[in-house]
Amino acid sequence: MNLPGAQPTRQHHAGDAPTGRSLDPHRQRYAQRAAGMRASEVRALFAVASRPEVVSLAGGMPNLAALPLDALAEDVARLVAAEGQTVLQYGSAQGLPALREQICEVMSLEGISAHPDDVVVTVGSQMALDMVTRVFCDPGDVVLAEAPSYVGALSTFSAYQAEVVHVGMDDEGLVPEALRQVLGALSAQGRRVKFLYTIPNFHNPAGVTLAERRRAEVLEICARHDVLVVEDNPYGLLGFGDQTHPALRSTEPDNVVYLGSFSKTFASGLRVGWALAPHAVREKLVLAAESATLCPPAFTQAVVSRFLARHDWRGQVKQFRAAYRERRDAMVSALEQHLPAGCRWTRPDGGFYVWLTVPEGVDTRAMLPRAVTERVAYVPGAAFYADGLGSRQMRLSYCYPTPERIQEGVRRLAAVLEGELDVLRTFGGRGSPGRHPGLAGPHSPSPDTA
Amino acid sequence: MNLPGAQPTRQHHAGDAPTGRSLDPHRQRYAQRAAGMRASEVRALFAVASRPEVVSLAGGMPNLAALPLDALAEDVARLVAAEGQTVLQYGSAQGLPALREQICEVMSLEGISAHPDDVVVTVGSQMALDMVTRVFCDPGDVVLAEAPSYVGALSTFSAYQAEVVHVGMDDEGLVPEALRQVLGALSAQGRRVKFLYTIPNFHNPAGVTLAERRRAEVLEICARHDVLVVEDNPYGLLGFGDQTHPALRSTEPDNVVYLGSFSKTFASGLRVGWALAPHAVREKLVLAAESATLCPPAFTQAVVSRFLARHDWRGQVKQFRAAYRERRDAMVSALEQHLPAGCRWTRPDGGFYVWLTVPEGVDTRAMLPRAVTERVAYVPGAAFYADGLGSRQMRLSYCYPTPERIQEGVRRLAAVLEGELDVLRTFGGRGSPGRHPGLAGPHSPSPDTA
């Protein structure tokens, strides 16, 4: 468990001044927050990932192969022909009422009972998170996030100059005792904690799930410390078992803002997500969203609404699950087969990601260019921490490539790692990674998610 | 000309605490900016406008009747069937390269020569304005805006706790001398001005256009005071003459951020807008946009791109112009025919709006409920000022209703005004509006746009 709470990140005060100073005539005009706006590694890797010879285990692009495109094409055509005057027009800032009702139906699969009036449709759940941060965070406020956490959330928090304090996880997700300690340390420092940002199911990037027996405890700790819970759940319906975990929101409607998305269960290119919030918070979110985009696209909302109404969307989700499960199996078996001793990884029960820890001495960020030369890409672990940790970790995505490509990618990655370890063995380094003390098997907790 | 610069608005420090205190358990948790998040009158009026018996002269909804829905339906179907795997997938944060090239073509009609790499596609130009404000404005920074200005821009500036200082207009748009005085007064106060937000063409809500001979002067004044110019131009191609005004950006590429939109020239429900910015600023805007929505919807961008590529979009814009010109004529002739003495209004050469000034003693906000009872709606002028002015003004939109409905709406509005004036004459008030000194004809400058 790590406790960087003592030194909250200030990445938004660093920034790209060195280059900016010489090149950018507008530099003196930017807001303070702009100093923290730097290209994320995930984004930089989109370019790499697009080169066909590279096996990208980097991006989180969903696999859309199972979508019934011809049926969708007909649907969308009917929508434009029959309802074009409405769906091509401005809509309400809160989102289409019919879609908000359907969203409540979708959430009921996770035990959530909600009223459509408390749902706000957003441009992907990324915008929902941006709006929540806009409504709650002043510069210097503390946001708690798992260690590691979603890179896109860290950049949103940075944009609002919130300070991220990480809370440790193990293979059963967020560690309640770690949460208690962090909150205790912060209140001793008199710091203002606005909310806990958590991804309970099939975590991005850690690939772990919050154990159900921990959920009530996490909610209780946050309630006692008067800290709001922001539950980000884009993968909740993509579990590889048949059972779906009950959302935190299902047992605590008054202190949880729930974020959902159709990006992984239908189509990410429509950018339709949502927030479910306590009523008073919902009112603020709608006004914040109105000042951000006026209203979400009526057209993409109508496409999603029609899909939910006319297609067997539960069957569609089952197909997605099967495709991702097959890919998860391909990746895990390839990791077991090819990776050198001293590597450990999580074994996800759903979602898109495996979190890999490499032997001591290997720096995943420094190794990335060599990996790309060997035609395999990943996201270095440091991208998922606001405090510079994660140098021995990487995120591997199995969502997009075929099982064969995944296996080939892992083979290439293993070869790159072997090369790194040879160099370490030859020229030394901090101990022989092969015999690093305390290493356990692939199914044990990884120290950086623990 | 008004100079509220001496008392910049602090509406974001006021807010809805009174009700919030009693009802909202989360009230103590909100960011300071949330105090300024209050329902805008424009939004509140969407509900009213939707009732069929009410003639809404309030909303700015474009008239989509001229769109070729059947052809669009076929197009969109082909798009999904042939390119679904791409257009339903995540895209780049900056927007589709093909669309950014087409956007440069569109902007060339206003004399702009730009590179697609300096264009950022956003979820409507509202999001572009939000991103510009995010990149440039710290709390307390000053943003200059015309008096009156677009209500949606004022709420965005408030969300970032920027302080709006208004600059006077007359029937030829922003008054350069007023700009000089405001900038002088503010620099004397040592205030930091980040940018001038201006709508040069067919202003929302004032309905006036910045005279071409003033454009170089406005740019020169801003350059001399090291103030960026944010040029918001959603209506530029909707002029009722044949000639299109050269954009401010066309003569000053280095100190202007240009905002464009397809909401008025194609379809607002797709929410596709853009920003064209100096290169270094563009880089910041892309990173800001990535933290806000990850990427704009690939699907809606592809729909716009296909429309521009396969349809006679210039011909489509001509049809829109004709429809809006016919409605402008209907409104102006109805105003001349029905409105009581002492009313003055602007006569727009393009766009959607007429700015009406009523006789002294009439408060347009107080009158609105009576107007709605008489089945006509408008937006009270106060919504377009950050400093509480505008009580004698209202915005009338002619974009959406039929010419007959517009005439009926103006008839109803005239009756409501007559009723107000009767009350004033009977029970007194500040002077007889009919013989108010200094009133001029309908074509003279209105004091609140001058």
TrEMBL record, chains A, B:
Ranges for region Disordered: 1-34, 428-450
Translocase keyword on record: no
Key words of the record: Aminotransferase, DNA-binding, Pyridoxal phosphate, Transferase
A Gene Ontology BP annotation from the UniProt entry: alpha-amino acid metabolic process
Residue ranges occupied by any Aminotransferase class I/classII large domain in the UniProt entry: 57-413
Classification via InterPro entries: Aminotransferase_I/II_large, Class-I_PLP-dep_aminotransf, PyrdxlP-dep_Trfase, PyrdxlP-dep_Trfase_major, PyrdxlP-dep_Trfase_small
A Pfam short name: Aminotran_1_2
Family classification: Belongs to the class-I pyridoxal-phosphate-dependent aminotransferase family.
PANTHER family: AMINOTRANSFERASE (PTHR42790), KYNURENINE_ALPHA-AMINOADIPATE AMINOTRANSFERASE, MITOCHONDRIAL (PTHR42790:SF19)
Name of the protein in question: DNA-binding transcriptional regulator, MocR family, contains an aminotransferase domain
Lineage, highest ranks first: Bacteria, Bacillati, Actinomycetota, Actinomycetes, Pseudonocardiales
